[in-house]
Design brief:
Number of strands: 5
Distance between the termini: 45 Å
CATH topology: Beta-carbonic Anhydrase, Chain A
CATH superfamily: Carbonic anhydrase
Largest sheet: 5 strands, mixed
CATH architecture: 3-Layer(aba) Sandwich
Bound molecules: zinc ion
CATH class: Alpha Beta
Strand order of the largest sheet: 2-1-3-4-5
Radius of gyration: 17 Å
Shape: globular
Number of domains: 1
């Protein structure tokens, strides 16, 4: 029988810091990519009635990118906020603020991904002025505006990275609790890009500051 990950790392008693959490979700992602089903509590309580997720993920609705699974995290470890293209609106920003101020969340991750249909549509709208999908148009129009404000993107792959950084900046702008925690050094904001093809994440920015 395998030893629980928290015990192996000797961190069952001491809550992991944000940089330690980052390393552990990256290790969890490598396990996911290898098909290993072991999940890390990341220092969250083992009692299923307690809600103290150390990590928050702001991700896309894409069904191929379930945050806790792709980061090898157990139930209770990750507070999740998901809209297509990881769009940030008032409820998303408020949810992240709640996690940081009330649940003890210390690491926030923008989890972008390759082959993102929302970003594809936003990039098309950014380059042509025409929304390719009318159902998604209100959302992709906002994402396209974000690409424009960020200085544009050279191709759709670049647009994924630009959009991820726009998400991070929008979180900092719209979530005062995140901003304060980043300045105080009590929380960390990272940006990652997931590949459905390799099942691996790439760290775009380890620590985004206001
Ligand atoms: Zn997507």
């Amino acid at each position: 029988m395998r030893q629980p990950i928290g015990d192996i790392l000797g961190q069952a008693m001491t809550p992991p810091t944000a940089p330690e959490l980052l390393q552990r979700v990256l290790a969890g992602n490598r396990r996911w990519a290898e098909g290993d089903t072991e999940r890390d509590l990341l220092g969250a309580p083992t009692d299923p009635l307690e809600h103290q997720p150390p990590v928050a993920v702001i991700g896309c609705s894409d069904a191929r990118v379930p945050p806790a699974a792709v980061l090898g995290a157990a139930a209770g470890a990750i507070f999740t906020l998901r809209l297509p293209g990881h769009y940030v609106d008032i409820p998303v920003a408020a949810g992240l603020g709640f996690a940081i101020t009330s649940l003890g969340t210390r690491l926030a991750i923008v989890l972008a991904h390759e082959d993102c249909r929302a970003v594809d549509a936003a990039y098309t709208e950014y380059t042509t002025g025409v929304p390719p999908n009318l159902a998604l148009a209100p959302l992709t129009g906002s994402l396209a505006a974000g690409l424009h404000r960020a200085g544009g993107a050279t191709n759709v792959v670049d647009a994924i990275n630009v959009n991820a950084r726009v998400t991070a900046q929008n979180l900092i702008t719209q979530c005062a609790s995140l901003r304060q925690a980043l300045i105080a050094g009590t929380a960390q904001l990272a940006i990652m890009r997931y590949s459905p093809a390799t099942r691996l994440v790439t760290v775009l920015d380890e620590s985004v500051l206001p």
